[in-house]
Amino acid sequence: MTATKTTDIDATVALVELMQKSGADVVRIAVDSKKDAAALAEIRQQTTANLSVDLQENYRLAEIVAPHVDKIRYNPGHLYHHETDKPWQEKVRFIAGVAADNDCAVRVGVNCGSMDPAKKDRYDADDSISPMLESALEHCEFLDSIDFTRYCVSLKDSDPAKVVEVNTRFADQRPDIPLHLGVTEAGMPPEGIIKTRIAFEQLIGKGIGDTVRVSLTLPNARKGEEIVAGASIVEDIYAGRVRSVVNFNTNALNIISCPSCSRVENEAFVDLAQQVKEMTQYAKDHAITIAVMGCRVNGPGETDDADLGLWCGPKVVNLKKGTESLGAFPYDEILPRLKSELDKLIVN
Fold first, then answer.
1. Do domains 9-238 and 254-347 have the same CATH topology?
2. Distance CA 267, CA 55 (A)
3. What's the topology of domain 254-347?
4. 34 vs 313: CA distance, rounded Å
5. What pLDDT does 83 receive?
6. Domains of the chain, residue spans
7. What is the pTM for the complete model shown?
8. What is the pLDDT of residues 105-129, one digit of tens each?
9. What helix, strand, coil percent values describe the chain, rounded to 5?
10. Looking at residue 262, what is its pLDDT?
11. The domain over range 9-238 is classified in CATH as 3.20.20.20
12. Residue 233: closest CA among 176, 166, 169, 160
């Protein structure tokens, strides 16, 4: 997925080309406004890459972008932010109709941190897998009912064990539907690659999964490393070089961070994630999860399950303890604040 502002056409095209040269078969670009959509039309003219558009909250943008892409990705959890009086089925019918008219595929992208609120409320707070699974199955059933079958599904979490479980359960019930695999907010190398490898080995090794994405927190110039890592993991699996016997230590410090994408409102987020990793090394033997998120779209929800969470805005970083907000602080003040809260958790 590109990490530039979509309206920065030259930079986005350059990143698309970098990813394509690194071996990417599909490059995903986020569109969150009509300006983004207009830029996407120009980007399409400057690259031969297969493009997937990442629809955010405004599902109606599908109509504008569909002529310029090969795939439309929507998140069921984001369908509740616009035109709240309309049922989600009407919105999906619109997306599917636009996709069919423009010869586009669709990906139903279900994420742990931005789920259908109605599904989430039906299960215990510690059960994030069941609402993801139910949402995915429900959307598949609806797409089938309107005779739209050119779609795939992704079910992503930052915990590789949950990625394995939810995708295994889905594949048991709908083995006919292609699955796109990924560990969301896997973090920085090498830990992010290790988490992803664990999930991919256990799923692909059982014949589950059709396409993959490796999501790493990296500056734009290094985004090609995601594709190289993914290709290497898949090649190893098919050659029998699997490493999942190595247990990922879940009783140690766990830093979750999202891949830098075009939704990031301040590029300082990437540097901040690295600084958090370095600053917190003294707590490496404590079972504490810290989440560093780069935007307002997924940041608030996807930090809820972390012991401490940072989600980054244009000028301030929002600090959370679980679901509790601890305030917003300038980028140059957030590390001492984070350390103070981390020290409290260690003592307790």
1. no
2. 21
3. Sulfite Reductase Hemoprotein; domain 1 (3.30.413)
4. 21
5. 87
6. 9-238, 254-347
7. 0.82
8. 999 999 887 787 778 788 887 888 9
9. 45, 20, 35
10. 72
11. yes
12. 160
